[in-house]
Amino acid sequence: MALFEEVPSESGHRRYNIKSPVSLESIGEFEAASAAEVKAAVDRARKAQREWATRSFAERAQVLWRWVDVIVERQDEIIELVIKETGKARNEAIAMEVMAPCMQISHYAKRAAKYLQTQKRRPSGVMRFSKKISLVYQPLGVVGLITPWNGPVALAANPLAQALMAGNAVVHKPSEVTPFSAILLKELTESAGFPEDLYQVVQGDGETGAALVEAGVDKVSFTGSVATGRKVGEACGRNLIPVTLELGGKDAMIVCEDADLDRAADGAVRGSFFNTGHYCCGTERVYVPESIYDPFVERVVEKTRALKQTEACDGDIGAVFWDKQMDIIEAHLADAKGKGARVLVGGERNRALPGYFFPPTVVVDVDHDMDLMRDETFGPIVAIQKVRDEQEAISLANDSDYGLSGNLWTRDLAKGEELAGEIATGSVCVNDIAMTYGIAEAPFGGVKSSGVGQVNGETGIRGYCHLHPIIIDTGRKAQGGYPYTPETARGLQKVIRTVFGNRILRWLFV
Ligand code: NAD
Q: Does the Cβ of 233 fall within 6 Å of ligand 1?
């Protein structure tokens, strides 16, 4: 059964019906905005941005603090809606879609003024005697925000808070499969007293997203799949607008021989099953040296068997988001089993529950010939490969087109840090599941096919600004310079020989 379907429309707009993965019942219908409507939203946002940019950081922060108040007051509405729309386990709906946005918004309300403070500098060299520099973080204007379905509130609220604190307006195109979370998010911002048109939601599909990129925005913040990211990147290149692309991953976990096995097994289970595996930094591959392989697998199996999946999503593992994801999970497992993998726990769709549920699954005897170890599965599967040693684990971890994040487990923290440097990903966690996105100070972003640019913290919020250098000449005399004569030319060459021909002087000069 398709959970997302186009239905007839009388308005001339594309119209869709959405069913819940939990009950398979319809949640509602919505219509996609036309390209002209998207453009009109961007034009309105531009007007709202002009006034917003004149507000101080403290004034902008006041609006964001009210937004946090509203989220706290209306958290039950968010939780119930997100569970219905995405099938997340209740604890994950709370942690990811309420707690994380509260943390993210508060972080930027409190710290944006520091991150974006104008910097006063003196230039180096002789310029220091006559010039000073002000580096001003100016807002870019209108940001086009395009988001995926796996964190419909969190993955929108975080960039939204950053873009707004930096003085921008935002036009948001949420995923076509989670439109209702975006409607609620918009309502929350209205209750918080956001200025009209500062944050707008344009509902729609890929075509609507593409229209937003072409609608005259000043930056695109995109989170989604690699395939779409490429198209968005191309369109932004053509329009000469900056873009951050936060794309898919195939995170590896490496268990070192000296790891605390109980803790590492917990990490494998949590890292692979969190958000039903629908997590860009979910652990999708686990590499374990043969010396510790059996006791590690035993622990993972035991911990997985203890997990509960319930019809109401109040257990440990939620529903699979939609039929498309279920098809990928089942296809990857079938491919792996056909090539010799063994399923130790789970492995078949949970038909005892009415919705789209797949049980927490443990698979062993996997290798890199299998789709399960190469392509993003995005499902509740721990896939464990036996390796000779830690070095083989690292080279297999790096044998991937993706490079988002990863995790490594050892009792020797210095060794952990050193080995982390050998993993070719945007970030690495030692003795924890991939937590980078949850720590605002850590720049987050992928390498290889996992993305372009970094978001979050000081680096991320500055990405919503143009750093505008203002150079001020503090001298009192006219600059002079003309007329050029053979003497002035010889004089310049003499300076070059004297200063740059001397190692000490050139060191002091610049
Ligand atoms: P998707 O690429 O299918 O869709 C993402 C968004 O792009 C949606 O809003 C969609 O409507 C829009 N879109 C589609 N075509 C477009 C086009 N041509 N131009 C502009 N917009 C277009 O991704 P998805 O299935 O919603 O999300 C899951 C993917 O997102 C996974 O690969 C996951 O790993 C990734 N993801 C990455 C991060 C990260 O921070 N790196 C976080 C969450 C999810």
A: no
User: Is 213 touching ligand 1 by the criterion CB < 6 Å?
Assistant: yes
Query: Best mutation site among 30, 97, 228 for ligand 1, i.e. most ligand atoms within 8 A of its Cβ?
Result: 228
- How many A from CA of 308 to the centre of ligand 1? 29
434 close to ligand 1 (CB < 6 Angstrom): no
Instruction: Tell me the per-residue pLDDT of 228-263, one tens digit each, with 9 for 90 and over.
Output: 999 999 999 999 999 999 999 999 999 999 999 999
Number of Cβ within 10 Å of residue 128's Cβ equals: 11
Look-up of token digits 């004034």: 59
pLDDT digits (tens, 9 = 90+) for 394-431: 999 999 999 999 999 999 999 999 999 999 999 999 99
Q: Find where tokens 């068997």 sit.
A: 305
**Beta-strand pair 342-345/243-246:** unpaired
| Radius of gyration for the alpha carbons in the chain, expressed in angstroms and rounded | 26
Task: For residue 459, count other CB atoms closer than 10 A to its CB.
Answer: 16
CA 225/CA 243 separation, integer angstroms: 15
Q: Is 465 a catalytic residue?
A: no
Does residue 143 have its Cβ closer than 6 Å to ligand 1?
no
- Residues 6 or more apart whose Cβ sits within 8 Å of residue 257: 289, 291, 292, 389, 390
